[in-house]
Amino acid sequence: MIINRSRVPMKHMLTIGLLPSALKVGYYRWRGAKIGKGVKIGIGAVILSNDIEIGDGTTIGMATSITCVKLKIGKRTQIRPFVLIDAREISIGNDVTISEVVLIRALIPSLQSKIILRDRVHIFPFTVIDPSRKVEIGEESCVGVKSSIYTHSSYKSKLDGYPVEFGEVNIGRGVWLSSDIFIYQSVTIGDEAVIGTGTVVSRDIPPGVTVVGSPARVIKSKEQYIVNIPEQEKYLILIDIIDEFCQYLCDFAKFTWQRTGSNTQPHWVLASQNKRDHYDIELISTFSNTIDQSLIVMMNEIPDNVRDKWDNEKRNWFSIGSRCCSEHLNSLGEELREYFKRYGIYFARP
Questions:
Q1: What region, left, alpha or beta, does residue 198 occupy, with left being phi > 0 and alpha being psi -120 to 50 degrees?
Q2: How many Å apart are CA 31 and CA 10, to the nearest integer?
Q3: Residue 147: helix, strand or coil by DSSP?
Q4: Domain ranges of the chain
Q5: Alpha-carbon distance 211 to 239, whole Å?
Q6: Tens digits of per-residue pLDDT, 177-216?
Q7: Cα(280)–Cα(270) distance, integer angstroms
């Protein structure tokens, strides 16, 4: 017997998969799905679920298949082409990236089969996750290329004495799984842990440590691994990053740019090759009521009332201190936000 979790016959789903994005979104809305503005569902992509909620600006790539009882995806999430996700419950947060050719499938389905990806998680290509039991991955964690996460050890016969075990996997906030990682069932990895390439994790990992090897062993604490950078040096690092970003636009988008001002108050001016698009970026250390309409990168925190005011005005801003950014980023802001991720700098947004 083949169990279909959706009441829609699979042969009909093949037809639906061929529809253009707008018609496909309309079809799912007609069936009761809650789908936000600007959602795109690629050619050949299908969703088999009777309880669907997708936030604004989310993209589901071509030839992607999602099968579940309950699906919830946040805002601005990217599920790229050729992804397969199959679990009883699927919960994906805001600004999540699931890269190409990722397989998330409950090999042994159960009522406990659940995948939870919190905000700003990144799953890199060729990853395999088996949520036969719950798998939860915390905010801003990364699962590197060709990694595997399993919630069971079921293959050889239990009657012949082989171990058959099931257990949840919980990965904390800000965890870095570099690449080729294998994680066994019933494992918890603490916040901010770093797991080296090729590591096999079969036991719990404390927060903030660096582990390598098979089996995993702790080689450094967080205090031994990270460097304490003075505020002034952070400011100079940000100047370098924004310089690099502007040169990146020059190299790949035919922009011209110039940095003016001083190292204490730098200002970047950008223009497209056809001179139709003009942008300004300003890096400041503290809030000032005299800020112009530039894209603002602020070192310190921005007061809540100012953030609300700027969002109502649809201003473009980033706060390093608050680790958040504007809800209404323009095209330059979106590009800069992606560029910051190259340096592990993430920003929450509504």
A1: left
A2: 16
A3: coil
A4: 10-224, 231-341
A5: 33
A6: 999 999 999 999 999 999 999 999 999 999 999 999 988 8
A7: 6
Q: How far is CA 200 from CA 52, 137, 140, 150, 164, in A?
A: 35, 17, 21, 12, 18
CA dist., res. 70 & res. 251, Å (int) = 44
Rounded to the nearest angstrom, the gap between the alpha carbon of residue 88 and the centroid of all alpha carbons in its chain is 21
Query: Does the model's pTM come out above 0.85?
Result: yes
Placement of tokens 């805001």 in the chain:
94
β-pairing, 84-86 vs 255-262, is unpaired
Instruction: Give one DSSP letter per residue of 182-198, joined into a string.
Output: EE-SSEEE-TT-EE-TT
Nearest one of 95, 93, 69, 96 to 83, comparing CA atoms = 96
Q: Which two tokens stand for residue 304?
A: 């809540």
CATH topology (fold) of 10-224? UDP N-Acetylglucosamine Acyltransferase; domain 1 (2.160.10)
User: DSSP label at 283?
Assistant: E
Distance CA 116, CA 89 (A): 8
**119-123: long-range pairs with CB below 8 Å, 24+:** 119/74, 119/93, 119/94, 119/95, 119/348, 120/93, 120/94, 120/95, 120/96, 120/346, 120/348, 121/93, 121/96, 121/97, 122/96, 122/97, 123/96, 123/97, 123/98, 123/99
The secondary structure of 304-315, three-state, reads HHHHHHHHHCCC
The tokens for 103 are 């397989």
DSSP state of 224: H
**Taking Cα atoms as reference points, which of 192, 40, 101, 340 lies closest to residue 329?**
340
Q: Which two three-digit tokens encode residue 149? A: 């996460």
Residue with the two structure tokens 């660096």: 210
| pLDDT tens, position by position, 151-170 | 998 777 778 888 888 999 99
Q: Count of CB atoms within 10 A of residue 144's CB?
A: 19
